[in-house]
Amino acid sequence: MEQAADAPEPAPPASNAAMSLPVDWDPSMMADDIETLRREYKTQVENSLPSPRLQFNYAKALVSSSRYSDIEEGIFLLNELFDVGFHRPDCLHTLALAYLKVGNYAQAKEKLDIWIHLEPQNCVLRYQVFYGVSNMKILLRRFSSAHPMMDGSEMAFPHADGTGAFVLSFVGISLAKDVHHPGPLMVSAATVDSIRGSACLPETTEGYVPVAERKNVTIDGYTVPIGFTNPNWESAIIYNTVASILVEEIIGFNTKLGPFGSGSPNAFELAANDPTVHVAQELWDYALTAFAASFNAANPDKALDRVKALDYSGTDGMYIFPKTYEPYYTDSGKSLEFYKDLNVSWGNYQNYFSQMSVFTDPSAFDDCSHPTVASDGVMDDYIRFTGDEDAIVTVNGQRKWICYQEKWWMSPACRDAPMTCAPMITNSFWSYNPSRQKAAVYNIAMSIANTIAYGDYTSMPKQHRTFSYWWSPDITFKADGAVKVIFLPYREDEYAIGKFTTDVNDVPLLSYVHKQLGTAAPAVLSMLGDMAIYKPDMDWLLEEVVLGRTLGVVDAQYEAACQWVKDNEIRWKQWIPIATACKRTQGYGMVTEFGEFVSTRLPDAAGCALCVPGRFADAYSDDDGNSAICNTCPQGAAQDRGAQTACAECEAGTYSLPTGTRCARCRRGTYQPNISQTSCLSCLEPQTTATVGSTSQEACICPAGTYRPCHDFDDGGALRPECQCDTSLYVPASSIGQRCLPCPEGMECPEGSDEQFLPCSDEEIQNSTAFSYPVPQEGYFVEWNEPLWVFKCIDLPSCPGGMASNCGEGLQGAACGACAAGFYKQAGTCHKCGEMEKHPLFLIIPLLLSPAAIFVLYKVSQDDVGKWGKTTQGFGGIGYLLLVYVQSISVIMAVFPTVPAMLSSGLSWSGASAEITSLFRIECAGPAGFTENFLFNLFLPEIVGLVFFLTWLIARFIPKIRMDGDIVLGCFGGILKTFFVTVASKCFSLFQCYSHPNGMRSMRSSPEVLEHSDVWLSMVGFSAFAICLNCLTLLVVFGWAMWVAPARFHQVSFRRRWKFMIQKMRPSVHWWMMVILIKGLWLALTSVLWNTTMTQSLWICAGLLAYFTGSYVLLPWRSVFVAMLDIGTHVSILLLCLLLPFLLTFKPEESDVASMFFLILAGLSFLAVVTSLLWILYKAAWPGYKTRRERMLNYYAKRMAEVFPTATDPRMMADLMGEIPALDIVNLKYVATMMSAEILDNRVPGRLVWQEEKKTDPEKDAFVCGITRSQVTWA
Question: Which among 470, 595, 782, 844 is placed 20 to 30 Å from 899, CA to CA?
Answer without folding.
Answer: 782
